[in-house]
Amino acid sequence: MALALSAYPPLKLRRSFRTTCSIFPAQRAKQKLLELISDQDRGLRTQKDAAKREAIVNAIESMADIGRSSITTGESLSATWRLMWTTEKEQLFIIEKAGLFGTRAGDVLQVIDVKRGKLNNVITFPPDGVFFVRSDIDIASPQRVNFRFNSAVLRGRNWEIPLPPFGQGWFETVYMDGDMRVAKDIRGDYLIVDRAPFNWKE
């Protein structure tokens, strides 16, 4: 009898084992996704590679399956998020064509404050330039956020040009953990961002 009982790990160890194993699929899917986007220059190269895009989107859908029951619109959504990869053509166009204006695109950010209901989409042009769009947001569901643009600003070292607001929509954060977020939006575009090691402020 003693031998039979000793064949089973202690209850605490069994629970720990189950918890650890449940994390493995998310870790594997996340690692695969990060590997797929690692050489894609934030999505610029993906535009010309349909097979790569399909592979990345499939990996994103796998992440969405893992995160299906999670709530991703709570206070943990509030952060300065930094672009890793996207299919959003407007952002990619600005990143790609910045050199035509004698500059380059730096960090591309999404700055979210759930409590205040604010969102800034930001493209930086080091050392002093920045283009950002201000939005109001409201939580529509456990994973969906509605947004409405209310103003935009193009700013340099000693100048600023205000621009009119232009549109509204929604995005869904289909997966989020302590350092990465994956989203898709009303237009069918995808976004992968990580938590920036800094807080961007106007």
Automatic annotation (TrEMBL):
It is found in: Plastid, Chloroplast. Keywords: Plastid, Transit peptide. The lineage of its organism: Eukaryota, Viridiplantae, Streptophyta, Embryophyta, Tracheophyta. Residues 27-193 form the Plastid lipid-associated protein/fibrillin conserved domain. Pfam families: PAP_fibrillin. The keyword RNA-binding does not apply. Belongs to the PAP/fibrillin family. Its main location: plastid. This is Plastid lipid-associated protein/fibrillin conserved domain-containing protein. It comes from Microthlaspi erraticum. InterPro entries: PAP, PAP/fibrillin_dom. GO terms for cellular component: chloroplast.
